[in-house]
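Section 5: illustrative case.
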């Protein structure tokens, strides 16, 4: 989610840096959160069964975009596929690599931006993203990039959910005082950069608050409804789009308290 490094830069890239910082900071405890990490053998088997049904049993080339600590990438590798996983957050990738090594699985984990991939055209049979598209500032750019690296007839699998409605928060963040705070964070980020000590602690605190503002303004903030995401994919050149609910509590380690689903399509 996982809703992948980069340095502090100016302009639109600063939004990407704020998002990277947030997920880097969460990497250490990410797998401890129910719905993110693997909590039981029963859950592992449920995901293996789901992915086996979605993807041909013959070895495929699979890309896990926004792979986080490698939950889906490792499951695909267990099934015998050739897997690459990319994430903007270096700490997430570090943890994913350690998990692969401990499991004896081979996965090509890379720090990379999921909307600017370092793979040739038509590289993969399958592109999968779990809890990622909601965290993209430009989801249409992401889909276009994922289709670029898919082979003709390849499958795009997006696992998402709808957990919040951020319209009220967006209105609050539009207030003048909130905009002034956002500009102050930008100034501080440019001044402190990658510094250490007290300045770094202040920057971390400011960026954490900045992320909440960025998150609320994302096009799919709070997660898209399934039908909205399906319509979005159709409008962005994805074919054969279908929706499948994913409400089996075994998949998540708990009973889902909001809609979870898969939207699938082909190039």
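Designed sequence:
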């Amino acid at each position: 989610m996982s809703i992948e490094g980069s340095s502090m830069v100016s302009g639109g890239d600063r939004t990407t840096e704020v998002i990277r910082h947030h997920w880097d900071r969460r990497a250490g405890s990410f797998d401890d959160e129910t719905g993110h990490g693997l909590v039981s053998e029963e859950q592992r088997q449920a995901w293996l069964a789901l992915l086996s049904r979605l993807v041909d049993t013959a070895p495929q080339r699979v890309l896990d975009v926004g792979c986080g600590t490698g939950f889906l990438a490792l499951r695909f590798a267990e099934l015998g596929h050739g897997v690459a996983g990319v994430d903007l957050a270096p700490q997430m990738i570090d943890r994913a690599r350690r998990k692969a090594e401990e499991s004896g699985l081979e996965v090509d984990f890379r720090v990379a931006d999921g909307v600017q991939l370092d793979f040739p055209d038509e590289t993969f049979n399958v592109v999968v993203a779990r809890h990622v598209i909601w965290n993209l500032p430009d989801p249409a750019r992401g889909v276009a990039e994922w289709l670029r690296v898919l082979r003709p007839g390849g499958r795009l699998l997006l696992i998402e959910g709808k957990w919040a409605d951020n319209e009220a928060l967006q209105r609050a963040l539009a207030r003048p005082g909130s905009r002034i705070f956002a500009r102050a964070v930008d100034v501080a980020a440019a001044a402190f950069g990658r510094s250490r000590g007290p300045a770094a602690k202040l920057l971390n605190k400011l960026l954490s608050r900045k992320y909440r503002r960025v998150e609320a303004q994302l096009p799919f903030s709070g997660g898209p409804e399934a039908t909205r995401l399906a319509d979005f994919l159709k409008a962005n050149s994805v074919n054969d789009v279908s929706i499948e609910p994913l409400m089996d509590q075994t998949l998540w380690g708990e009973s889902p308290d909001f809609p979870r689903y898969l939207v699938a399509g082909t190039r």
